[in-house]
Amino acid sequence: MTDSNNLEMKLQEFISYRIGHGDSISTAERRARRIKTLSKYLSVNKVDMGAVLRYVEERLRKGIKKKSVRIELMDLQRWYEFLGYNVVLPKLKKEPDPDPFLPTSGDLTRIREFCLSRKDRYTWMRNLAIVDLLTTTGMRAGELIKVNIEDWKGDSLYIRSEKGERDRSVPLPRWMAGELREYIENYRYKTDPKALFTSRTGRFNYNKLRGLVKYVGTKVGIPQLHPHSLRHYYATMLWKAGVDIREVQILVGHARIDTTTRYTHISQRELGEKVRDRVEEVFSFRQKLEPEVQIHVKSDGSEPNGMGALGYESFILIATPVIDPIPGEVSV
User: Who contacts 330 (Cβ-Cβ below 8 Å, separation ≥6)?
Assistant: First the structure.
């Protein structure tokens, strides 16, 4: 048996092992894919700490994000545990996650126009339905490829959770329901009796889906587009439209509310405009105090004081004594 065949067998065992230890099927499969990729650079069947450290250094020097390398190390740690090695791999310091790319409504319009301009209607009406369904349901890529025709209920879609969380049903816009109906009746390949999205060879798979979104994004000028970008767009737009954050949590299928809050992106400027009236109301004490207090403000370029820390222009408050009518008493 060749080394590659032996690795494939081990990876299948690894997937079962990780599922037994709490991973969802998709998570376990992703771990296995990463180990297979790492096997091109490391001897994954034995621990060579020097080789691991050199690999990490090389990845970082190439500009690979620490988060990506950290995930690789975590999966390699789980792999070594599966093989029976008692080893602790180095851990990279976690950095604050930058806001992921969030497409605009204009970006999505260009994507639709691009799909509709293609000549191969069977392929591109399917591709359009895929991108639009990701956008209007916020489902994960791994959830979309598992959707069956029977999961479409006309005005809603039943989604089987990819992460072992609770399955859910999400409403569909009327135009999305119409687009799905047209796709199923006129353009769907009948290569799989159950799958909603099919190719010429069967159910549409994960790699094809990621490749499709990347291809479309590149063609319309947004190469950073990713299936998860559309999930973030869905959650953010719902929240901005006034949907309660806990309702958004249910719709996107998160087990924890703090995960959902990371999906509701809002810029500092938008946040400032959103709370401006409330700030005026909450801090209205200044107007109430003005008639009773005399405060002279002197701008001299000094270090910010307490008010400066609140975001106001830096200044010094100088309290000038005001002589009370009664001699010897001072009010400030």
Answer: 321, 322, 323, 324
